[in-house]
Every structure is written in C-alpha cells, then in structure tokens.
C-alpha cells in the first residue's frame, strides 16, 4: 500500500544573533513565523485574498498553508481544505531562551509535490530569521539545511553563506518504509512511544490513549489523503481489512498521561489549549501489514495539529526477558 507516497525531511539550523525568547513547546510559534514569511515571499497577486486567487493551486503558501481542495478532485468536494503537506518538528527541549551564538534547530517534512517549493521555504526561512521570531522578535541567521538520508545520516543540502543548494534531498518512499519494517523482524514485542502531545479524535471526542485499533483508522485516512492530493492521485481503498485485523490486537502494557500546552492563534486572536496524550504502549506480534502502516506514521505523525509537530511517535523493538 501507499506505493506513491513520498516525503523528504530537512533539518533547519538557525544561529541566534539576539536573544530568542520562545515558548516551552515551540511548534506553533515556528509555524506562525514561517507561514507569515512564506506568504510574504510567495504571493504574486497581492490584490486577491487566497480563496479568490486564480493561481492558488500553484502558490507555495496556498498549497502548503491554506491547502484548498483542487477543483479537479474526485473526493472531499464539500470540504474546504485537504491535509497540509508539511510537518514542522520543533526541538523537544523545554528551554525558553537561546542566547546569541546558540543554535536553534527544527525539522521540516515536505510531502509529495510540496517538495517543489523547497526553494520558497528556504527563502522564507531567511526572511523569518531576519525579521525575528518569538517574544520580542529576536533576530537570527539561517545557517544551513541538511536532509535526512536513507541510512539515518544528515547530509548538507543548503548553505546560506553561498546561497547554494548542494543537490536534491532523499525522498523517502515505500522501499524505505519496508526497510524500516524489517528492523522489527526479530523482536518479540513492539513499543509505541508518543513523544509529543497526540490529539486523537475517536467518535467525535478527544481520546486519551494510543491503542492501535484507535489510531489506525485515522492514520490510514491521513496517509490515503496525502497520497491522493500530493503524490499522484491514487486513492487507497483496501483498508477495511486492516482496521478489522487491528481490533484483535491486545496490548500487554500501557502508560499514558495527558499533557496540555497553550498556543496563541493570530486568526482567532486568543490563546488556544492544545492538549493531547503522551506515553507508551506495548504489543506482541503486530501483523506486518499493520506494522508497515505504523512505520509510515512514525515519520508523518497522527491526529490533529501535525503541522505543529503534534502526534509524533517512535517505534521501538523490545526483546522479552
């Protein structure tokens, strides 16, 4: 499944030139600053609002941050937006101040055709650094971008000093996911560790646990829509059997806590509580078909607020004692 789905992962490195005063969880702040800068560098027809713009399906800001349903779409015609094709992962450290000379790093994942806008994002990151971000708009300098290679190493992609791209980032695809899945062939147990608050909606309500039967339907929907809208238009349909298979799985251990964090919404002009669960759960004998889907989600996150870095989890093989 998901033979057309693909994505790249870039590490962004800023160097603080003034004190950077940032919140404990930094995902929303980074998204707000980057979105403002991307719109500034991408908008070619400023007299139009985004929904009325005649080139909204070709604009980096519109495609990635507004993400309207294309007129040619055969699905979701009554919905205003498709899933956003990017993920920003902030540093998980809780420090709220970076002094001049300190590095500030975050990750940017681009899905499918959104990779075509990498140069737009890079230009916007330079603008974001120059204009400043965080409380007091502390200024910094974009130093470099590196991409995650198939072997887990970081490879130089862009240097700001020379304003030069050094090649193309590795695009993760089904082959990489299957290689990741094979790393669990000899393990007796699988642990899922949720490292950022996960906002999972089940039957219309926020869920407080990350059991596979609960996360799988939403994850399959997310992967299906990302592939359909951004990776060639193929719509996966054979998902019911996987969902039914997952209902038979029983966990052997779980430990979850609820974690609230607050972000400021400029559109709503108010503070918004964005709570979610963190913690871990352990299973024995997860079927390979489901494990493959979980490997996709390990990179592409689950639930609501993925653009802020929410819904991140890590799969860990465990050998039973």
Structural features, described:
The structure is a single chain. With 321 residues, the chain is of the alpha+beta class. The chain has helices spanning 27-42, 60-66, 118-131, 174-182, 212-230, 240-246, 288-300, and strands at residues 7-16, 20-21, 86-89, 97-98, 103-111, 140-148, 154-159, 164-165, 189-198, 200-202, 205-207, 251-259, 262-265, 270-273, 276-284, 313-318. The chain folds into two domains: 7-165, no CATH class; 174-318, Alpha-Beta Plaits (2-Layer Sandwich), CATH 3.30.70. Helices cover 26% and strands 29% of the residues. The strands form five sheets. The chain has a six-stranded antiparallel beta sheet, covered by helices on one side. Strands 12-15-9-16 form a four-stranded antiparallel beta sheet, with helices on one face. The longest helix has 19 residues, at 212-230. It is globular and about 55 Å long.
């Amino acid at each position: 499944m998901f033979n057309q789905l693909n994505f790249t992962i870039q590490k962004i490195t800023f160097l603080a030139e003034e004190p950077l005063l940032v919140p404990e969880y930094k995902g929303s702040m980074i998204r707000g600053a980057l979105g403002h800068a991307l719109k500034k560098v991408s908008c070619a027809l400023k007299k139009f609002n985004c929904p009325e713009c005649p080139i909204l399906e070709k604009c980096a800001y519109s495609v990635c941050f507004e993400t309207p349903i294309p007129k040619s779409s055969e699905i979701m015609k009554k919905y205003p937006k498709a899933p956003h094709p990017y993920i920003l992962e902030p540093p998980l450290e809780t420090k709220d101040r970076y002094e001049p000379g300190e590095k500030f790093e975050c990750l940017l994942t681009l899905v499918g055709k959104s990779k075509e806008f990498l140069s737009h994002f890079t230009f916007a990151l330079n603008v974001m650094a120059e204009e400043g971000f965080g409380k007091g708009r502390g200024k910094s300098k974009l130093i470099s971008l590196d991409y995650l290679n198939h072997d887990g190493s970081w490879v130089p992609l862009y240097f700001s000093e020379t304003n030069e791209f050094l090649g193309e980032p590795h695009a993760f695809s089904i082959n990489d996911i299957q290689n990741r899945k094979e790393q669990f062939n000899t393990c007796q147990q699988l642990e899922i560790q949720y490292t950022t608050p996960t906002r999972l909606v089940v039957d219309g309500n926020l869920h407080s646990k990350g059991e596979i039967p609960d996360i799988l339907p939403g994850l399959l929907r997310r992967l299906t829509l990302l592939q359909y809208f951004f990776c060639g238009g193929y719509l996966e349909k054979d998902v019911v059997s996987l969902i039914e298979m997952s209902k038979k799985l029983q966990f052997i251990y779980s430990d979850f806590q609820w974690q609230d964090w607050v972000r400021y919404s400029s559109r709503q002009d108010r503070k918004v509580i964005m709570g979610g669960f963190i913690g871990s759960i352990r299973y024995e004998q997860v079927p390979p078909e489901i494990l493959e889907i979980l490997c996709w989600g390990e990179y592409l996150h689950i639930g609501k607020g993925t653009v802020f870095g929410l819904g991140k989890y890590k799969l860990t093989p465990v050998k039973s004692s």
